[in-house]
Amino acid sequence: MTIATALTSAITTAPAHVAADALSGPLADALISAALALAALMATAVVLTRDTVRQAIVLSGYGMVLGLLFLILQAPDVAMSQIGVGTVLLPLLVVLALHATRRYRDTGDEPPARDGTERGQGAGRSGGRGAGGRGGGQASR
Prior knowledge:
Blueprint: H1 3-12, H2 26-48, H3 52-72, H4 76-107
Helix pairs in contact: 2-3, 3-4
């Protein structure tokens, strides 16, 4: 037997003491099933929560559970992304949007128009044109 064939056979055959997979067997299946059930429970809790601020908090918990599920499924990069986006960023955006809309709802004011005029006065979005934005006059021939 030459050295090259000995090295090739040593590389291609796995040692007998190495486990086939770290996440295999009945205990691992039970862990995955429990994580999937917890994710389904949290998703249902997000949908059934009626108060929007509480729903954002439950959404954050759902993002954490999904991150844990991805970690159990041996996808740490996806888990880190999920924890960053689903647990922190998305609920933060929801809460900030709720705060912005409630500020106008509580005062009764409408947000300012884009062109600087108050709503209900001036040209508005049509730019001073007549109905349909065609200029309002007769068409030239």
